[in-house]
Amino acid sequence: MSRYDLLVIGGGPGGYVAAIKAAQLGLRTALIEKDQLGGTCLNRGCIPTKSLLHAAAIFNEVQAWPQLGLSCAQAHYDYAAIHQRKDQVVGQLRQGVASLLQANQVTVIAGEARLAAPHTVRVGDEEYQGEYIIIATGGRPYLPQIPGIGLPGVVTSDDVLGSPLLFPRLAVIGAGVVGLEFATLYRSLGCEVTVLASYDRILPKSDREISQNLSMLMKKRGINIYTAAHLSKIERCSDALTCCFAAKEQDQQLMVDGVLMSAGRRCYPQEFLNGVEQLEISDRGQIVVDEHFATAVPYLYAIGDIALGCERLAHAASAAGINAVCHIARQPAEMIMSVVPNCIYTDPEIATVGLSADDAKAQGIDAVTGKYLMGGNGKSVVEMADRGFIKLVCERSSGRLLGAQLMCRRATDMINELSLAIAKGLTARDIASLIHPHPTFGEGVMEAAADVLGQSIHTMPRRRS
Question: CA 326, 332, 337 angle in degrees (round to 5)?
Answer without folding.
Answer: 80
